[in-house]
Amino acid sequence: MSSTPAPSPELGAFLRAHRELLKPSDVGLVATARRRTPGLRREEVASLSGVGLAWYTWLEQGRVTASRQVLAAVSRALRLDAAGQRHAMRLAGYHDPGPEPGPRDTAGDALAAAVGPVLDSWPASPAVLLDRHFDLLCWNTAWSALWGSPASIPADRRNLMWLMVADGRLRTVLHDWEPLAMNVFQHFRAQAGRALTDGRTVEVYEHMERDAPEFRHWWGCHSVAELTARTVTVEPAGAQRLELSLSSFHPVDDPSALVLLFTPVAEEGRRRMSELVARPLRPVG
């Protein structure tokens, strides 16, 4: 990890977005009738952080770097939660480097070979392995039975964010899909690190822009959050409704990857999922 990270325009945009969301009362200031700036003024954040106005302005403009200590002070002034503070640190270059970018197919194949048998051990629980870009590396039969087989999707669009906004079957099967879809985008930003602005992420965003432009505000937003455990309701075509509990974890071999697991909540749900898995697979679409 470099001790002197480069200036980050992405960090500046992130800080500015959160500054504009805060109200003066959120930080103990009194708003006046003459205030025209949305949210806090830069000078107010600078004062609360204990830094100079010019320097903070340059930070938002992506022209200077910040130490961990100073960035922590700015994060506190902006009332960032734990996920937001981690994201700010990562954008500034203060994050675990993780695996170096390399041949995507080679690295993905190796990880899929290691994790795939684990996914298959859950025959009635849809599960998928995602890489640091949220590309789908492998999935089990239950995942294909519920959402449709990802193998039928072009490889350059085989990505969870693309699925959440552009896959008609997923949106039809998943009740209240929007909160989960938004959380997927927030979690990607929170953990992406260097992957946030690299070529593959740009490619995925371009595909979403072409295929689902009505949701462009989702990938243009700067909010971050952890992907929280929750219960979701699904109703596959021709099958009864059931509830699944979503959980996630990182493989030991690659902490930048993510496994999503949807476990039937009750015995009846397990029976219905087993029946769904026994049906012939249908393609996504």
TrEMBL record:
Q: Which Pfam families match?
A: HTH_31, MLTR_LBD
Q: Which residue numbers delimit the HTH cro/C1-type domain?
A: 14-85
Q: What is this protein called?
A: Helix-turn-helix domain-containing protein
